[in-house]
Fold these 4 entries.
Entry 1:
Amino acid sequence: MIEWFQFVATRLPELWVRTGEHILLTGTSTLIAIAIGIPLGLAASRLPRLQGIITGGVGIVQTIPSLAMLAMLLALLNKIGTTPAIIALVLYALLPIVRNALAGLTGVPAPIKEAADGIGMTRNQRLWLVELPLATPVIITGIQTAAVVGVGIATLSAFIGAGGLGQFINRGIALSNHQLILLGAVPAALLALAVDASITSVQWGLRRRRSARRGNRLDGLIRTLALSAPLFILATGCLAVWKPDLLSAGTTSSGDNNAPVIRIGSKNFTEQLILGEIMAQLIEQNTEMQVVRKFDLGGTMICHSALRNGEIDLYAEYTGTALTTVLKREVISNPNEAYRIVSEAYAKQFDLTWLSPFGFNNTYAITLRETDAQRWGIKSISELKSRASELRAGWTSEFSERPDGYPGLREHYGFKFATVRDLDTALMYEALVQEEVDVICAFATDGRIAAYHLQPLEDDLQFFPPYFAAPIISAATLDKHPELEKILDLVAGKISSETMQRLNSQVDRDKRSPAEVAREFLQSNILPSIQ
Amino acid sequence: MISFCSVSKSFSNGGEWAVQDVSLEIQTGETLVLLGSSGSGKTTLLRLVNRLIKPTSGKILLDGTDVATQNPVQLRRRIGYVFQGIGLFPHYSVAANIEIVPRLLDWPKEKRQKRACELMELVGLPPAEYADRYPDELSGGQQQRVGVARALATDPEYLLMDEPFGALDAITRDSLQQELISLKQRLRKTIVFVTHDIGEALRLGDRIAVMHRGRLEQIGSQDELLNHPKTEFVRSLFEKSSMPNHP
């Protein structure tokens, strides 16, 4: 516990910024949802014919799983970051707001509405002077539900690079780092409680109107404070985003604001974070450029479309992935041939440039627990054939679908496993260790293979294509900053599969930060060669 | 003067008549009581006056002008209305409830406040004590006094009262009836008062119109109704009421 607090203390500056982003994501989307939802609720209460369509419509949105919603918006808008995140959050917030507005308005007692008509109110006067004030407590309860649920859903926005506290959770899952998961989850839970309390305080303030009307000045002041409680939270969010350095006590580099900016992306697993850091630190050390890290993006296609849309300038991709997932071509087993084909196709189709590979081949490795492999005397994939029908497989979702994944493997080796479960990368290793599954699709350079005593099997029938990692950069960025190629070439061929596995394991097993591991690697292997 | 000319109203198209072929006149300055059991059509008649509902056939004239040709909002602001079940706005204080119609008419704030104070004095609720209270902090009788004050706010010529004392206990009802009588003498309003209580009708009405199943049975003074009933229904109604121990 104390350790965790110490850990939090070291991450306070970033926690401040992420909390701010989280507040603004939730706050903005809730405000937009109020602006849309209350008129919708009003329309539904006035026009019984529309009522079914409106409540049905906002209800259906709610049934779409949040990740699917984010992925769909991503495809639709062709954009990562806050815009799709806020749209998704608005769509989820609509249901409670519309439902409660409708319930509140229809719940105004008929005799009171008739009295309003009878004394000569117009329809608008009746709405503003009678119906809305009487429906307000119910409407606010809807807003409260929307905002609190929104704080939770906003943690998923990190998948598409919108920041927020979810970024710690994603990274924590990617790095199997519980401290990091809690760094996101605990403040998110506290924030949800704070939001809930702030809106409860608004309700309290509204109820206090009577006594404040009669009461002394102190009463009025307390009431004003109670009514503005949500504003304090929003203001904190704005402050954090506006003054991100407030808690860093001047430790971060002040950074020349006019320096050209380069945005580096990464996918959401350890190796990608380390490669991202290596590239970022190399550029920081060798240029005046300001590096923005947009790490932890939720998958190959998200990185790829972000790079194509110019939302990031650079990230590390693997030849095999580019060939099969992005270009949707046949598997090629010759590494040089694969690299040549992807770099030509990327240049032609996407205006993206493949720089020199880092050196290692992070291919898939069908992997068992070491104890099983020894007991059964199995060293290669084809030896699994006789046992496959009794074994439970755990794959990443990508591996289950990709042609160079399970579908191809099944065909190439001619057997299949008893059951298959789709698991998150980090959970997949845990599941193998916990004996929830018996065989997984590990990554050859993954540090957890050594850390967890796992046994990768030899791909004796040469099914898996080569996955050599290399930086890919947009041609436009490279034109503007041609020196980047030389700088990134400093690590070309310098990271062998063994080195990469070691670096990965320093993060996964030793719980060190990717930034620190990258810095140490650069200091001991690359910097001496420059000087 | 309010005139009903052959007014009929049906809520279900061509089905049963809530009000059937009613013609009557309410003279300026008089209090006419519409007396009848529930379903007799008395409240329907009242609601037709300020266009809360429209007649199926026939006309209602207010000082000679068909109400159907008047803007309903303007019309309603000229007519005070005291509701069955009171109908105060629970989110407004007593003063704000009384000031609501002047507010809709954009009276200046001071004039509104002064008027509210006058009216609260008039209905026996000292403003210093009651102005900032809310309806749920008042007794039923006090709430109905506020309802009356609200209806009088703009000093309308006409006052429609829909069983205003129906839900009150006997003692409170008695004292409110007393006060209405004295108000009536002081203010000289044209009042249409709906009730199912024969005692109340006899006490308050200058004239009484007896309604039964949507039809007007008889309209006349106490004396005419008691001594010269035109229909069997009217006769039996007042016979029963004069029996001892009848509630």
Entry 2:
Amino acid sequence: MQFFTSGFFWFIEGIFLCLIIIGLKYWTEERNIPMPFWKWLVILIWILYSGFTIAFIGTCLGENEPAAALKGGMLFSLIAIVSAYGLSRLLGFFRLTRHQPK
Amino acid sequence: MEKSEDWRKLSRRQFLKASGAASAVMGSAGLGVFGYQAGKDSFSYTGCESFQGQAENFNRQRFAADHATYEKVGVASRVDARTEVIFSRVSSLMRQWDEEKGLDSLDKGLQAYYKKHPYDLKEDLHARKKIFPKRQKDEIKYKKKFVLAKAWSNAMSAVWPPGIRETPERYDFPRGEQYGEPVEPLKMKSPEKTSQLIKQISYQLGSTLVGITKLNPDWVYSYPMWGRGLNPELPLEIPGHWEYAIVIGTPMSWDPMYANPNYGTSFDAYAKSRIIAYRLIKFIRQLGYPARPHTPGVEYDLMVPPIAIDAGLGEQGRHGVMITPELGSNFRPAVVTTNIPMKTDKPIDFGVQDFCKTCRICAKNCPSRAIPMGDKEVVRGYRRYKINSSRCYNFWYSNLGNIGCRLCVTVCPYTRKSNWLHRTALEVTANDPSGMSQRILSKMQKSFYPAPHPQEYYIPSMGGKNESYREPPWWLQTEDFIDIDI
């Protein structure tokens, strides 16, 4: 299980992040959602924050601190969910109509 | 043809979108497993990688200060080891006290101390009169639970270099060629290189952290302890060759430390630090320079924590214990005094004073209420948090597990294993001058890491439940290995 604390793991995570961004790019193009630089920045921050939340829960469980995992996990997850809803409204993800391909 | 191209284009887009969604799921799962591994990883037990010096990995240069963060506010007075060090005082009291004669049964020094501090006499006698009988009663019923913890503690202290029985003038100096120790000091190339060498040797001997400072005479006892080759009836004249102090040390084993006060033991780190100090004096003497160890358990001619603070290893916390960036409070130091010329380290200021002002976790969790909730006081010319050592020591002796308590070390928010989460928290608090992150993190510590009520740590006869802060590690759970009725 040393893989998960190795540099190669972060390389794979980087590939996953690229795929997430590419997938999101196509998804927003299909919906005609304009994506200026600041929107990508906000999304990236949210992704990193969500990653922190998941890693925090895992770390607390690994340290045998289930109360910290539960309480911290609930708090950080709630912030992640609320901010995701707020961001989707702010970035206009569900406002515009879907692009119809010719 | 056109239709086919549309189909392929659509397929690629769909594929990449699906890949993005799958990556989100797999990346999240990966982060969860990474976190779990980081929390469990044995390399997060700082100190496990000793012998290479890799544990001393906090950038102290950034936080170097011209003065240590303790504050001198008046004329300093040195500590009288016979009465002001709790171990010496209580040991003398127990030997000399006669119930009928009262204070008259004590030697003059002790009488004078207790006349000046009557509260301490009450507390020190409390252990003898009230706590010991209750403890003896509970021992019969409950001590079996701690068989493995005690066996482990005793095993750790089984190798214990013998103490010093000679004066500094005799003991500290090289013994001559028959011991491989030159009488004339070898000429060292430069203080910088000597510091580098001494630090590397200390790491190689197993020290987790190493710091070097000029010895401040305020930290040397005014009267020495018994059993150090010095006459406790005479003031301790500071020998000229106690010019520098090298501070070395190791942490206590992490998992038992979290199961304080019963399952942890100071003696694992005590023994390691003591052995390192005795090896280091041998090394220095082989270079022809005098060296004297000041080591745990209780064999010192000086106060170690302020010297370690001067040597840039950490800052003093509310609980009176030095807090280091790498190990928090989980550090058991020893000192070697010598006159081999070395470059000294600077003290550091990484925000502990501000943190301790508002945190108070150690004070709230202290079963004996020995740690103050209030502000610092002036103690012997220095402003610091004043610990009630008598109350602290009384709890030590009520405890059925390994001797001592160490709960203040355990609950300190800085005492965390070295993984990404706690290293990030450390860096954030150390670099935030506003103090906001410190307040937020100490609140998170209080709410995320629950602890038993302080009374529950006591033995049942004293209204407690023999509680520990956390469950002991599997290898100290007696009931899983030994067929005895607990």
Entry 3:
Amino acid sequence: MTRYFHSVTLDHEKCRGCTNCIKRCPTEAIRVREGKARIFEERCIDCGECIRACPNHAKSALTDSLDRLCGFDFTVALPAPAFLGQFRRTSMPEKVLAALLTAGFDDVYEVAVAASVVSYAVRRYLMTRDFKKPLISSACPAIVRLIQVRFPALLNLVVPIDTPMEVAGVLAKREAVKKTGLDPARVGVFFISPCAAKVTAVKQPVGRDKSAIDGVFSMSQIYGLVVKKLKDAPSGLGLQRASSSGILWGRSGGENAEVGYGELLAVDGVHNVIAVLHEVEKGRLSDVDYLEAQACVGGCIGGPLVPENPFVARANIKAMAHMVADRPLPVAEAGMQALYDEGTLSMVKRIPPRPVMSLDEDVTMAMAKVELLEKTVESLPNLDCGSCGSPSCRALAEDIARGLAFETDCVFKLRERVRDLAAEMKELAEKVPPSMERPRATVEPDDDA
Amino acid sequence: MASEPTARVLTLSFQVEGQNFRASGEAAGRIKRALEQVGLDWSIIRRAAVVIYEAEMNIVIHARRGVLSAEITPDQVVIVADDEGPGIPDIALAMTEGYSTASAEVREMGFGAGMGLPNITKHSDEMRIETEVGKGTRVTAVIRVGACGDGSRAVSDCSQGSRG
């Protein structure tokens, strides 16, 4: 039994052992060993950078099979806001949702509806002014895991409000139970995801014991089915309820726009987020109230499991949000306040740190290893070529200090050793036994007569 | 306490160039990474991160060059920022929140808000400034494992400077 569930997985057949993924991984979680990539599961945050980077499509995301729908009497599709961005901007949002419904669900509940509720809760929380700054959004599960792994000291800044996905799961199930009278266990709510991180967030949630979501399908997985139904989809079912501000959560900046209170800062792309979190760590952003941080460039429309180009999707989602610009918020303020007061929107568990950086459990041993690491780095070529299977010379030095690699794993170091050995061999080859030595004219003790 | 093995010291030091804002924060980042790898408590690393960064920025903003170093033991982290620079004529004034001698350009970049030394004091358990006008400044900050920080024990025993 493994400690961590990961949606991101490797297809050994397809992996050619190149260095593309190890160089992109934001937590240095991948090494190439015996010709194949290997993921350190305690470091992986399921951000999906490797899925994007792999030219051989050896990295993929584990999602649920559509067969899971058969296990329930009533099923609800929960499309993430980014879903609308996957369709041409001439498509009506209502028709896209109707096509999704006819692809095999009994009902549809937009996560964008819950996004508006979460925005309300965040705003209420910001208004208390009783928090350490900057508060960090909890919406992107890859970023929450990034903080667990690389910035545990910042975990207390993560806003203790649940994600739009979880809130949508709770609200959709409540509504379906009310509508059908079924046992909640017979109602299945399925998230339509732009990324692997959300799959992991459902299978192994942080901030709550069990996810409200019964299964996750990726947008790419379901896209073909929906496109086929789109032309003949009905447009009068009244499925589309989310406001434009909720829909725009699907792209970067959308969350902050809807929260709309206090000093706001938005950052997207996991490497950019790391840079901003370093600034937070230095204490340089204590004038910011709220930080929207998303692992994918462009926000969720840039997710690794979406079919559409993120820049095209950005224009699509904007156009669709515009079409429903006059729609009021889907849940009345009194309703949102009630949800806030009853605690439905709060995270119930503290997010634990997942520190993986220390080189040894014993501090003194770790200090010795850091010393060895620093010394090793000096001796390496620092070209960061990746041929050793570690993402950089520094990472190799770290692996050596941990006892997971050898200096000769470095091709340059190996060549140096070979050259030295060759020189030594040449020297040895020139040595001959005294019996075979050629007479030396000068030292010849010829005749001492 | 007799049989306790003598704790080893891990020393890291980095050259810091004055006015090089592009590279600023790199030395601090390297030291912070080492603290993580040593596996000190996260509350210590959080405090140390602020102190190291502010100490490095003090050199970048005010001095010609300097050396930023960290002495790490299991019980404490000692940060020393030793620079060749203008020195501090009035330490008490320099310790005032918001007081800064940074140039307008530097402030434009979002640095030099006059919070450097106050922030170091706030996040360390002990802080010392030795300075000589026209020569340079050495700031020493100690962060102890298990101490409270947040300025509550921050006795700034600044040995009065300007010995020149």
Entry 4:
Amino acid sequence: MTNPSLTARLSRAAGGATNLQLLLVCFVVLIAMSFANPRFLNAYNFESMAFFLPELGILSVAVMIAMLTGGIDLSIVGLANLAAITAGLFFQRMGGAEAGIGTVLIGVAIALSVGLLGGIVNGLLISRLRITPILATLGTGQVFTGLALVLTGGPAIVGFPAGWNAIGNSKLGPVPLPFVIFIAVCVGVWLLLTRTAFGLQLMLIGTNPRAAVFAGINRARMLVYSYALTGLLAAMAGIILSGRTNAAKSDYGASYLLQAVLIAVLGGTNPAGGRGNVLGVALALISLVMLSSGFQMMRVSNHLIDFIWGAFLIGVLVLNYLLSSRKEG
Amino acid sequence: MSAQNAWWKSTEAMVAGILLLAMVLIGLVNPAFWSLENLFSLARSNVVIGIMALGVLLIMISGGIDVSFPAFAAAAAYLVVRAMVDWGWPTGVLVPFLLATLAGAAMGLVNATLVWKLRMIPLIVTLGTAAMARGLLNGVVGTSNVNINKYPKSLIEFGKTDLVTMTNAKGATFGLPATVLAYLGLALAIHFVLSRTMIGRSVYAYGAAPEAAKRVGFRTGRSLIFVYVTAGALAGFAGLLHSSMIWMANPRDFVGWELDVIAAVVLGGASIFGGRGSVLGTMLGVFILVMIKNSLILMGIDTTWQRVVVGAMLIAAVALTALRDRKAIV
């Protein structure tokens, strides 16, 4: 590799100008919220955001991966809950809250396998049966949520082992553990997308599916891999969510789906495929979490915050349209 | 579909066949299925979801998808009922329904503008507008139900009207609600528009091949506006109809309905890639979905399984249409 290509790759990895814009948005939100709330610039506030943000962040990265191939995954929240509930039922058999660290590790493995399996089902439906990703994952999302409901019968599963709750609540030095996991996921996915053949092929499928097939890429297999990865990430989000709240329920986090899609799109992911980067998604996530945390401090109702999220999504679409049409014109 | 294709090879005939088979099976498991009381209640359950499905059908034929209509329906119904209760205006039946329909159409116009002008994926646009509609409604207007004690009398009377009233063995009365007529009328109207008017044909043309539709001279922007505004209007109307049938206005109503309705439309043979779908197929799809959901109880299956069954039905239906479409291309 020669130097120019390396710098080109670096700037592409950083997402170029778009990520600079996002960084700017981040700072604008930070400054605006600090002015609006004297308590916003407070270590405790940032710590609570760092506990709250990872589950949403991991789901956003999952949506981004599904979008890279021109698809979408609407089943992530259902799968996250199903994974946590399966682990919860396993713990109930194995001594409940008193279960030891070994049992917890097996529980984590079970939850991750559920996510992986659900993702593979999505991938097979989309690649082998050629079902549109929207409808396939809308259907499987319902099945996952439905199974979670059948397994629990309705009420939340509570009383997770201490080791499990530590995943969502403990700190590594000053940094909350969920945040550490989130950073690790970001770095891992970033490396996977920018430094491996897998990532390159995934991008190519999204950019030009036909050319990808002619280039000898096994599209079906790549789709299964990408949805399996999406499912795995969904399960991780489910583990963190249930660890943080010490509970798992079939309808937890229902509003996360819209927010994850919004963050992925805002972070520069092209829903039609072929473009997206982890750094952009992370920046979008941080600005939106600061935004909603600031509004919560100002005692804006949660319903209005939902409205703001929706308006933000539409606003970003309008802005992107205006910017791109100016470039063309 | 060309004219020389035999009618029994059509998607509608296939769906109807599945429907009959399912009816026979459910009837065998529990003969109570065939009671007039159950059939009337089935017809009643078809109305609201059916009217919404007509709107989603239009959007799917145009190659789009809509997940905002449940939010629009809840918003239109709640706003109108709230106005009737708090301000004493509008009164009667006609004006409230007109207003709910207009409110739905206005919200549909927002979708249309965004999808058409921004060339943005309908799923993401409608996810956003749905969140905005629900957020504004619950955050600004309120979250409390309008219950039967305050609910406008005129709407209760309207929702109570039956075409036929009967008495069952236990002496309770049951009937076929008149609102079924609204559903059938709207279905006929949409069928007429889709098959006999230029705007209807333009929706098919746009859904099958947008660029080609533009080149042969269709004004495709108009088709998109027609599709999304009509879908919004149908959602608004269906929202108030639902509210008048249950004598309650709930601003958080219809959560999760998008899946049922989309599943029904896909079950009826419409393709998410656009250009395919019919009113008859959609009505059959709605009937299958409603019947199976309602019959789970009759068949002694726990209701917690409902979501699994609906999800599995959606997957099976899209898998079948995907196979059909693949064959059609070869």
